[in-house]
């Protein structure tokens, strides 16, 4: 495969934004691909996949290119040089790569005795934390979290069936496979931009990982119920709740960011959903007004995102232990506040896309001991391991208000 200079320069530019200016990888790539409309689908795939792979393996490539942290702008081509040698076995004779020509970038990490922080490309503090919280499991989870995640779709059952969607996509040249135990899911055989398809524009599906597709059924909402999605964001789970409720009853989607709720409304319209109303949270008063009003409450809590590192590998370089402390405190506050919205006899699901017990089961256990949690009983818990399932790491707990 011949490497094109303009594409490699685009990768370098994207990496500068992600690694040095702290921008989010998906947003940076979206911008870069939009700016370069003339690139074909192979070029787009090259830029996106190369950028993600280098972000994922930053520490390993940095080690090969003998770079020192914190990285500077002049170091970024070193990461790219190491990637090109390791993955494509070539290093074009361009000036950006001159400083790296005489380094041995061909080393094989399996054959070297290096610390896991380098071979698994992870910051020291995070590796230590993972080991403390997960013990021996951390090693294998970490390896699995360094793989590329499959693209999984959720059929919008308000508009079509999975079989019909599969045929509609096939007619557009996209082949998919069904997944056991997930009645609405289809996995792409080959990574491709599904947002351009007619099926997507017609609202026949959403892109949603398999683990994430397990959350709304875990809450088990029924048509006609009043359901509150407390941390709705742009609505991944709210849309699924609506389809399980057959568009009947009411879903109140709440979030502290208006731009996310606006996106949710657009997605709801495309999905043909009429039973979702959005409510911007501007303080605890507006939440407390809804006390004891919901049959079911979903708390899809903000978290470290460690379970979804396959999709967002930049998160490992952006997280720090202060952020984790703050997010655990926010999770506890959110549990205390939004649990008050569950009617007597009603149910609550607390979910995260983290694999750390301190954000998951320990958070739920602490809640059950606090005043706000006293009337709740834990009915069921699910921890989804990336190693065991091949899906994103997730946690969900089902609680009932037995007041
Ligand atoms: C994990 S994300 C939700 C993802 C979303 N449920 C989905 O399926 O696409 C967590 C969300 O919680 C929101 N959030 C953070 N603090 C909040 C609070 N105090 N009340 C409500 N939402 C909050 C964040 O803005 C973020 O959108």
Automatic annotation (TrEMBL):
Active site per database record: 353
Domain SAM-dependent MTase RsmB/NOP-type: 141-402
GO terms classed as biological process: RNA methylation
A GO MF label: RNA methyltransferase activity
Domain of life according to the entry: Bacteria
Keywords assigned by UniProt, alphabetized: Methyltransferase, RNA-binding, S-adenosyl-L-methionine, Transferase
UniProt keyword Transferase present: yes
InterPro entries: MeTrfase_RsmB-F_NOP2_cat, MeTrfase_RsmB-F_NOP2_dom, RCMT, RsmB-like_ferredoxin, SAM-dependent_MTases_sf
Binding residue positions for S-adenosyl-L-methionine: 255, 300
Similarity annotation: Belongs to the class I-like SAM-binding methyltransferase superfamily. RsmB/NOP family.
PANTHER family: NOP2 YEAST -RELATED NOL1/NOP2/FMU SUN DOMAIN-CONTAINING, RIBOSOMAL RNA SMALL SUBUNIT METHYLTRANSFERASE B-RELATED
UniProt protein name: RNA methyltransferase
């Amino acid at each position: 495969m011949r490497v094109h200079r303009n594409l490699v320069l685009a990768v370098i530019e994207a990496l500068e934004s992600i690694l040095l200016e702290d921008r989010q990888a998906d947003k940076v790539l979206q911008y870069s691909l939009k700016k370069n409309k003339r690139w074909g689908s192979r070029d787009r795939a090259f830029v996106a996949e190369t950028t993600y792979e280098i972000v994922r393996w930053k520490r390993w490539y940095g080690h090969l290119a003998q770079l020192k942290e914190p990285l500077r702008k002049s170091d970024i081509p070193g990461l790219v040089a190491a990637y090109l040698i390791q993955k494509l076995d070539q290093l074009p004779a361009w000036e950006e790569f001159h400083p790296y020509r005489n380094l041995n970038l061909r080393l094989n990490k399996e054959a070297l005795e290096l610390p896991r922080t380098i071979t698994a490309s992870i910051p020291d503090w995070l590796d230590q934390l993972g080991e403390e919280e997960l013990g021996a499991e951390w090693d294998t989870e970490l390896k699995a979290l360094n793989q590329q995640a499959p693209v999984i779709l959720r059929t919008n059952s308000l508009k079509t069936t999975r079989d019909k969607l599969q045929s509609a996509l096939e007619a557009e040249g996209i082949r998919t496979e069904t997944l056991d135990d997930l009645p609405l899911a289809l996995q792409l055989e080959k990574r491709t931009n599904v947002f351009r398809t007619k099926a997507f524009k017609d609202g026949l599906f959403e892109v949603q990982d398999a683990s994430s597709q397990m959350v709304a059924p875990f809450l088990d909402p029924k048509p006609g119920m009043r359901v509150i999605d407390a941390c709705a964001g742009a609505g991944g789970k709210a849309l699924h709740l609506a389809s399980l409720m057959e568009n009947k009853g009411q879903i109140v989607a709440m979030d502290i960011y208006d731009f996310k709720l606006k996106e949710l409304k657009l997605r709801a319209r495309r999905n043909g959903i009429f039973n979702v109303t959005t409510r911007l949270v501007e303080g605890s008063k507006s939440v407390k007004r809804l006390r004891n009003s919901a049959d079911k409450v979903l708390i899809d809590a903000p978290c470290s995102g460690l379970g979804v590192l396959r999709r967002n590998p930049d998160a490992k370089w952006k997280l720090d232990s202060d952020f984790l402390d703050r997010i655990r405190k926010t999770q506890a506050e959110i549990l205390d506040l939004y649990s008050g919205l569950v009617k007597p006899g009603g149910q609550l699901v607390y979910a995260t896309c983290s694999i750390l017990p301190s954000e998951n089961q320990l958070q739920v256990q602490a809640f059950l001991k606090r005043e706000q949690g006293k009337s709740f009983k834990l009915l069921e818990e699910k921890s989804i391991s990336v190693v065991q399932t091949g899906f994103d790491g997730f946690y969900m707990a089902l609680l009932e208000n037995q007041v």
